[in-house]
Amino acid sequence: MTFQNLLGTASAVAVLAVTVTVTPAAADWRQGFGSFNIGILGGENEADRLRRFDCMKTLVSEVLGVPVELFPAADYAGVMQGLLAGQLHMAGLGPAAYAGIYLQDPEAVEPVLTRAQLDGTLGYYAVMYVRADSDIQSFEDMRGRTLAYADPNSASGYLFPRGQLRLQGIIDDEYFGRTGFAGGHEQAVIAVLNGQYDAGVTWTSLQGDYAQGYSRGNLRRMVDNGLLNMNDIRIIWTSDIIPNGPTVFRKDLPEEARALMLDFLLSMPAKHPECYKLTAGGEDGGYVQIDHAFYETTVALRRQEIAASR
Question: Fewer CB atoms inside 10 A, N or C side of the chain?
Fold first, then answer.
C-alpha cells in the first residue's frame, strides 16, 4: 500500500469556499484580551520569517482592533506548545504538527483553512536531495549514506518520508549509515551543501519553474532569500502526495474574532495580494476551508509513529 492509496487525491477533498459576513456587534471580547498572538513555524531563519509576516501583523491588528504579536519559534515544538498552552491564538502548521497537537489535546485547536496549489490540488511533496556534484544519482545509492531530517514534528521533513519508506520495507536505521535532525528545513539544506550530510528531505509543490525552487516550498523560500541556487542540488526521490498543512485557531478564540479572521484570510489573496504572497512563501491558489477530517490519515500515521517509538 502506498501513501497515495491512503490519502487519495487531495484535490478531491470537499471544501467550503464561503466568505463570512460579520455583523457589527459589541466587542466585549476585546476588553482584557491583550494581544492576538500568531505563531510562525521554525525551519527558516527568524529575520526572514518576521520580515515576511510583518505586513500581516499590521493588517490583522486593523481587522481585530487589538495589538498583534508574532512568535517565530525556534522549532515546530515551540509553536505546538504555545498553541496547547493557550499562549498563541493562530498559526500555520504542517500536517504532522497539527496531528501532534490533536493527539495531545483534541480540544486545543481547530484546522480551518489550507492553501491550494496553483493547479487547485491540496497537497505537496517531500523530496530527497543531494549536492549536484555528489556521486549519489538515485535513492538506491543512499544505502550506507547519511540523511538529514528537518524536524521531528515535520510531515515532509520526517514523518511522511520515513513512513513511506517503511511501507516499502526500508528501515532507515538499517538502510542509512546515519540519520539526524538538522533543526529545520533551511538548516538541513545548508548542512547538505556544507557536506555535513549526504542528503536531506524537504517540502515543495513540484509545480512551476525548477530554477526558482518551484512555485512554493522551502526550496522556493531559500532561492528567494538568496540562500540557494537550484543548480547546486539534485532531487533523487519524491514522496507520494501529502495533505497541505492547516491554518489553525485556538478553539477558545472569541467567536467574533474567529469570524473576522476567517473572512480576512479568505479575502487576503484578492485584497492584499503582495502580503498574501509573502506569507505564503511563494505562489499558490489561495485559501480553502477544511476541517479535521482532512488530516485523519496524518493523525493515524503520527499515532503509529508514537507507538513504534515506545
Answer: C
